[in-house]
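hiii, so i know i said id send this last week but things got crazy w the move. better late than never?? heres the sequnce for the chain we talked about at the cafe, plus the structure i predicted for it. fair warning i was half asleep when i ran it
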Amino acid sequence: MADVLINNDYLFGNIILEAIPHPGGYLGFILRFFSIVCHYFSSVTFFVISIPLFYFFYNSRFGIKLAFAVISTGIINGFFKFISSSPRPQGLSAQFQEFSSIVKESSFGFPSGHSHLSILVWGIIFTNFKNIYIRVIAMFFIIFTPFSRMYVGVHYPGDVLGGLFMGMISYYCIEKLFKRYPSFPNVTEWRLPNKKVQSSILGVVAFTLLFLLLEDNLSITAKSSLSQIINSAGSLAGMWIGVTLWKLKYSKYDLEDLKFFKTLFLLVISIIMLYVGLDRISEAFFIESMVFRYFRYVLLNFAVIFIVPYLSLVATGEKEQS
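okay and structure toks below
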C-alpha cells in the first residue's frame, strides 16, 4: 500500500504542481509575497522570537503550550522525514525557479513541516483568541500555508497531505493534554516535587540525547532532517529544565509583574548571544556538529525560560516573595 502511494504521480509527482498557475502582474506578486511570508512564519527564527513574547507578555501558560506544540512538531515531523527519506520535487519548470534562491529547503520532503505547523500552531491561536482579526490571520495561515508549499515547488501534494494529517492529530493531542492539565507541568502538586523534578529532568535529557545516536555517515539531506530533530530535542530539554525549576523554586513570583523593557532587553540579549552568537561560533568552529547544536538549543531555551525572569524578578529583588 505504501509503495502504491509513494509511486503515485499525483501525490508524489510533478503533475499537480505543474498544473498550479503562476500568474504575472499584481496577482502574481501577491501570491509570491504571501508564499514567502508563510515560509518564514514557520521558521525557527520566527518561533524563537514569538514564543517568548507570548510567554512573558501575554500568558505564560499559553506560551508553554505553544512552545510544546512547536517543539513536539519538530521532533515528530523531523523523525518522520528522517526515516521516510522522501525527496523533494525535482525537475520542475522555470516558473518555480524564482523561488529557489529565497525558499531554500535541504531536508527530506515527507511530511511537510510547514503544513503540520499551520494546522497545529495557528489552530491553537485560532481557538485561544477571540479577536476577529487574529482569527482571520490564523485562518489565512491554516489555509494558505499548505498551498504555498506546492506553489513554491518545495513539496509534493502527498507531503502536504501528510503534514496536514499529522497536524490535526497533534492539535487534538495537545489540546487534550492542556485541557486536562492546564498548568502543565504543575510540579507543585507532585508528590516529593524536588526528587520528581530531578528525575524528570534526567529523563527528558536522556531521552533527547538519544537522537544524537542517529548521526552516522549521513548524507547532507539526512543531516538537515536530523538537525530539525536535534534543534527540537535540545529545545525540549532546555525548556523542561527551565519550566520545572522555575515552578519548583520561584512559583510565588508572578510573571505578570515582569517589567516590559527590562525583560525585553534581557530577552534580546539572550537571543543575540545564544541563538545568533552561538550560530556564528558553530559556523566557524563546529560545522554541522549535532552535539554543539543540541546544547546550543538547551542553553537558549533554559536562558529564556529561567534566566531571563530570574534576572528580571528575583535577582534584582524587585518583587519579594509573599
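btw Residues 220-249 form the longest helix (30 residues). thought thatd interest u
miss u guys!!
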